[in-house]
Amino acid sequence: MERLIKFSFEDFDAKQIFECGQCFRWNAIGENSYIGVANGRVLKVSQKGEEIVFENTDQNEFDSLWNDYFDLKKDYKAAKSILSDGGVMDKAISFGGGIRILKQDPWETLLSFIISSNNNIPRIKKIIETFCRLFGKSVSAFSDTYYAFPNPSELYGIEKGDLAPLCAGYRDEYLIDAIKKVNSGEINLDEIYGLDYISLKAELMKIKCVGPKVADCIALFGFAKEEAFPVDVWVRRVLHTLYNKEYTAKEAAEFAQKSFGKYAGIAQQYLFYYMRENASILGLQEG
Hints:
This protein has helices at residues 14-18, 59-69, 76-83, 88-96, 106-115, 121-135, 171-184, 189-193, 197-204, 212-222, 233-243, 249-260, 264-277, 279-282, and strands at residues 4-8, 26-30, 33-38, 41-48, 51-55, 138-141, 144-147. The model has no long low-confidence stretch (mean pLDDT 93). Strand 3 and strand 4 form a beta hairpin. Helix content is 48%, strand content 13%. A 5-stranded antiparallel beta sheet has the order 1-5-4-3-2. It has a two-stranded antiparallel sheet with strand order 6-7. The longest helix has 15 residues, at 121-135.
């Protein structure tokens, strides 16, 4: 029996969701069509207009997993209304208003954004895919083999040398540190999930290489802390270009909290996507 379901959603654009920089295991296989691996499952998402087709799932699985993963219960219109400023943000919302913040697995998000540090998206995706092939369980779907992201217990006892095939460079040391701290219980991802944003960020930064920007990415994409506003050199350029002011990382974070409040993370994704997709027009280069 064919395993697919169809829905119509507003404020949902597959391309924007999967290509805004928040995830690394979704790959385009055609126009507005993607295959990805999340929570050990393989899903194909295709979109025409407001109709979205989800293949390789059923209603029970969709209700228990994908509904939450795609944040489909959130009223993004309400968030947009609060963020609307009659100017810059309205332009960003108009351009990338189909973005939804995926509720990704905290463990996968932790390691993925350690890998992302000072890296570009194609290379990040390649490293993560190699990592999953080395240590994750295989999953069959669409006449092909995919690999789930390995859980902490599957990585217990691995050493830096085991990660050499990733070609991740200095990040190997930081991945090992995260794996050891989670497996030892020094960092308990279930317990810290319930912490407030500031306390959560402080816990995440106990792991090597997890500075403010990476911690904010993990908090936003893995722990649903929508007030998190990841700031790097690129985001500072975005703010400088759009708001005509130079910001330090600290000033950028303060500006975001004051201007966007509890939806700062959603605002960051609108702004980031808008500027990245229009970078050549605006004279910006990522990096």
